[in-house]
Fold this sequence. Notes:
By secondary structure, the protein is α+β, with helices and mostly antiparallel strands. It has a single domain (about 5-190), classed as 3-Layer(aba) Sandwich (Aminopeptidase). It has helices spanning about 15-25, 30-35, 40-55, 85-95, 100-110, 135-150, 165-170, and strands spanning about 5-10, 60-65, 70-75, 120-125, 155-160, 175, 185-190. Helix 1 (about 15-25) packs across helix 3 and helix 3 packs antiparallel against helix 4. The two termini are about 25 Å apart. The mean pLDDT is about 95.
Amino acid sequence: MSSLDVRSASETDRHTVIGVITMAFAADPMARWAFPDPATYLSVMPEIAGAFGGNGFAHGTAHLVEGGLGAAMWLPPGVTPDDQRLAALTEEHSPKERLGDMMQIFEQMDRYHPSEPCWYLPLIGVDPLYQGRGCGSALLRHALPRCDRDRVPAYLESSNPRNISLYQRHGFEIIGNIQAGSSPTLVPMLRRPR
């Protein structure tokens, strides 16, 4: 694609951003392990996205590729996901036999999350029709200069092994693995400011 414009998403864009994220994660290994039933996934993923990254809207740190092709839900230093809502949604909608493993995953995520202030990228995704056309890179290029300017690291957990090389191209480094029971592996990644 020749030109990809990225902008901060406002509260009025919430539905579009969450819709893109929901579509982008429809084949994501971790999201579908947590919510394998298609109807459950489609009904609960918008709420999961809102709880995980929705606190960024008030800070202007949710980003959207014009046309709704892709979205990123960043949380600035000091802003966190709604962990209580995430846990409640997981307990209510994930298969009961996976709940123990899910709680272990959340605990491991907490251990890997940097204790120092950082920009956290809980969700980034591209509409499947536009994947592989540079939308993910455009979203990262839009946000990472701020991390560098503020001299603050950026952190994420990659839930799809296909995306690790994208994050590495933008300076993220693998710092471990998160896995429990039958779950896929989440890969925590950290990018130091440049």
